[in-house]
Amino acid sequence: MQKKLCLAAALIAASLFSPGLRAQTTMESSYENWPSYQGDDLELKVDNSGTHFALWSPKAEAVKVNIYATDRNTAPVRTLTMTRDKDGLWRASVPEKLYGKFYTFNVTVNGRELAETPGVWAKAAGTNGMRAAVIDLDTTDPEGWDKDHGPKIDNITDAVIYEMHHRDFSGHPSSGIVHKGKFLALTEPETKSPEGLKTGIGHLNELGVTHVHILPSYDYNSVDEENLQIPQYNWGYDPFNYNLPEGSYSTDPANPSARIKEMKEMIKALHDAGIGVVMDVVYNHTANNDDSNFSLTAPGYYYRHRADGSYSDASGCGNETASEREQMRNFIVNSVKYWADEYHIDGFRFDLMAIHDTETMNRVAEELKKINPSIFVYGEGWTAGDSPLPVERRALKENVSKMKGIAVFSDDIRDAIKGHYSNAADRGFATGKPGNEETVKIGIVASTAHPQVDYSKGNNSKFAYAAAPTQIINYVSCHDDLTLTDKLAKSMTGSTEADRQRAARLAQTIVFTSQGTPFMFAGEEVFRDKKGVHNSYKSPDSINAIDWSLKSRNAEQFGYYRNLIKLRREHPAFRMTTAEDIARNIVFDKVKVPNVVSYTIRNNANGDEWREIKLIFNGADTPYTASVPKGTWTVIARDGQLDPDGLDTVKGGKLEVAPVSALILAR
Ligand code: CA
Predict the structure, then answer these.
(1) pTM exceeds 0.70 for this model
(2) 248 close to 216: Cβ distance less than 8 angstroms
């Protein structure tokens, strides 16, 4: 999904591209011939022989390094002239260890010296990331870091993913958290809402999610780190320095070690609580065009262009990167490897992943699995605009079967359950709109081939695009677009809040019992809203921050979500790993009325203790009478209540499924 921030930038970019860039188009094909460099010592390395700089810029005519004593507002204390080396590198060294110093590069091309840049591989920086910093990364490791690791999981389908923004999660006064909107918020134990209920990390454990997915936490452009006394909110889909954390989430952006140390402390605290950390990564575009760190180090190379020389714009943000070129591919692969190694990151979510090519994504998955087999990768299997990259090479949802070890978001199940994302008034299966039944079934089988699912009736995709359920992320809302709460309010005209909470329960019950991996937006478990704002990328905290008093007010809703997650985690039948298992173990019932989907998971699927699980979803406003096979069943969910240990037992036969509810039976 796209951030409107970027669309404005795109219009400006289209009108302002420079003649210099136009001249480079003739080079578009020759970019493929530029030398590449695979080493991990790019830009800065400190060892016993001194401090070594190495910038990749094959077409530069000269490169210099500026050394500074402070992170801003001072003249260089020293300038080094770099020397051309092989593989497109420029090198300079000094015999001292320059710890505590800052540096930038100036590259000269076509007789013109470009503006200063911290480079593309800065691993530490000062305020606003303008000057890279020389620090000893070992000194940023928290106590016990060498033994730190995230949860071990066999398959992504064992994960329950919780998507959060730092300020949403801890920014509201009701969070009871000291370090509001900071990395350190997720290190504070025993924090409470005004009503005495758990917030912060304790809340996550109580809810039972396995992984948090943090919105962009690399150094992004939009928040001015020099003026944090002014509240500033941004989602952060505007990358500046890819390989170091965002300064505004630290307690001291001017101290290059603080953001690194504090982010590691956050990760360690989550790991200690048994929770993994997924990072949202945005390699598909940069915040700036000609002024980006890519453009200031190797102009032209890292981006795709149109025939007229302007930046192509599949991101809707004014540019798109060129993952098919060797050095850009190396950059993406080495960058995620760095986050996995240095920060112990457990998963990556690729923004607008289809701007990247499938070969790059396959390399990403392969290399990460070598570091830690529990790491998983998923992304948005679409672009925000057209791209020069041929469709068959794009890491699209429809191409996911070519990408082993990569999962994509299912917009199929999302829109089928709640109604179309871009039309606020549109309803879906869970809110009484007929015609979405087959797409809900597509969601249940995780877009894999199933003999009883007719893909020609699918709303979005017309074929079984996933080779396995491990390739699908199921969700009904995320940071983009209306929250589920707001979507229900805008589409269920004349409804009460109780009606809408009931619909939310049905919607999430479908998501969490479907094959694939469930994903939820932070705060939906307490029925948070965003006051109807769909694109809240820079809305104030008053729109975005979760009011934790809702946890008390909507205690039953929270209890339902917690039980739903428990149900999924206790029962492998909801977490099958192959398309064959799904086709063999899931049997749909013939249903003659709209807004009902009924199916059975049989054969102690995936080693489940339950031989058979019967699930009937009724999205209509009238009761549905189901025929359930004779015998004794444990009632797991009924009429808006859910308990994995059983609510009751019933005999089979004719059973009523209340309007807008799920009936789940097991034996
Ligand atoms: Ca920043």
Answers:
(1) yes
(2) no
